[in-house]
Amino acid sequence: MLERTKLLIVDDLPENLRALQALLRDEERTVYQATSGDEALALLLEHDFALAILDVQMPGMDGFELAELMRGTEKTRHIPIVFVSAAGKELNYAFKGYEAGAVDFLYKPLDGDMVKSKVNVFVALHRQRQETQRQVVALEKARAEQEATLQALHLAQEELQRALRTRDEFMSLVAHELRTPLNTLSLETQLRKLQIERGVQEGFNPEVWKKMVARDDRQIQSMIRLIDDMLDVSRIRSGKLSIRPAETELSGLLQRVVADLSRQARETGCEISLKAEQEVRGHWDEFRIEQVIVNLLTNALRYGCGTPVEVKLEADWRAARITVRDGGKGIAEETQARIFEPFERGLDTGVSAGLGLGLYISKQLAEAHQGTLSVSSAPGDGSTFTLTLPRTAG
Ligand SMILES: Nc1ncnc2c1ncn2[C@@H]1O[C@H](COP(=O)(O)OP(=O)(O)O)[C@@H](O)[C@H]1O
Ligand SMILES: [Mg+2]
Question: What is d(CA 136, CA 141) in angstroms, rounded to the nearest whole number?
């Protein structure tokens, strides 16, 4: 909707104002009247006028003085002025500072048509300017929107590129991680084939057999773990990771896990100690809790640089808390949040790491139990991972 155009007429004689008002009246205009310069100024500061028609000769502040004041004020500087003066008067007053075309003159007695056509020109100019301004604003808005869209597009593109890079890296990692145990298995098979062909008896020695099978089993288990991890990630991603809570006792579970990992611990030259003084029962998914503890312990063995690893179980009526502490290199503050992200592997550890899924899956499992998994660590001072499981949930 177009706003009404506002016009200001200033004259000390009410009859002159009335006459002008009659000439200027129009559906789309509002005409404001002032009988003095002061009154006019008050109106000028309050409204946005398309045009001011000023009587030159007024007692007190005359038309020129009023124009000077208007010129000196930011809000009124741009308003075009038409001076009304008696015919024959000298009007070469210097209006420096006014835009060209922004000042005009009318002579008394007023010629109705002349007044109308002059005012129409100014009003049309004003409308045009308003329209241009609206367009500029609209254009600026469109430009800003475009800019925002572009920005979003840019971000999405970067995100996509990162995702593609991660996928490529991931594929080569998985391939590598699977290839290593498969290589070993393949070698073992070749060896057995040779032994069978040559009929080498000692190849069938039960002791040798036992060791061979144990080696094979380790390779197979590591591949199964890897594939299970990947399946877990895809379950998490599609929101299908579920837990099956049942009556679970944690100290027994920890004893079992620690015993299972003791051989691996000896191999890395460190010892796992367990401090679980009391039984702690709750409603949790035993296999998933075991998975988390195994992840934390294998990390501690892998990144703990052969230092003693300490597992502790504590509980109050609200929650059970399992901490796994190592004395390794620790994790820099700025890295600590990242290690719980998928595919994040500390590159600073210098140890050949896994796929970087263990902690991500573990945290998700903790949260599926309404629990938490957190780390506290200072570089050089080891790391402590804490799994907290509420006892009231479920
Ligand atoms: N006990 C720890 N001490 C130092 N760094 C650790 C420890 N546990 C995990 N990290 C860091 O967190 C990263 C992510 O761990 P994780 O998700 O288990 O993946 P992965 O073991 O496959 O690398 C590891 O690569 C390692 O840099
Ligand atoms: Mg790990």
Answer: 9
pLDDT tens track for 220-255: 998 998 899 999 999 999 999 999 999 999 999 999
Q: Which ligand is nearest to the CA of 353?
A: 1
- Residues in contact with ligand 1 (CB, 6 Å cut-off): 295, 299-300, 303-304, 326, 328, 331, 339, 344-346, 349, 353-360, 383
Contact 51, 119 (CB under 8 A): yes
Specify the ligand 1 atom closest to the Cα of 356: 19
Residue of 170, 359, 385 to mutate, ligand 1, most atoms within 8 A of C-beta: 359
Residue 113: which residues within 8 A CB-CB, separation 6 or more? none
pLDDT over 90 for what percent of the chain?
63
Domains of the chain in start order, with CATH, are 5-110 (3.40.50.2300), 157-237 (1.10.287.130), 246-390 (3.30.565.10)
Ligand 1 atom nearest 361 alpha carbon: 17
Q: What is the pLDDT of residues 91-130, one digit of tens each?
A: 555 554 455 457 888 888 889 999 999 999 999 999 999 9
Distance of CA 356 from the midpoint of ligand 2 (Å): 6
Which residues in 348-371 are b (16+ Cβ under 10 Å) and which e? ebeeebbbbbbbbbbbbbbebbeb
pLDDT at residue 346, as a whole number: 62
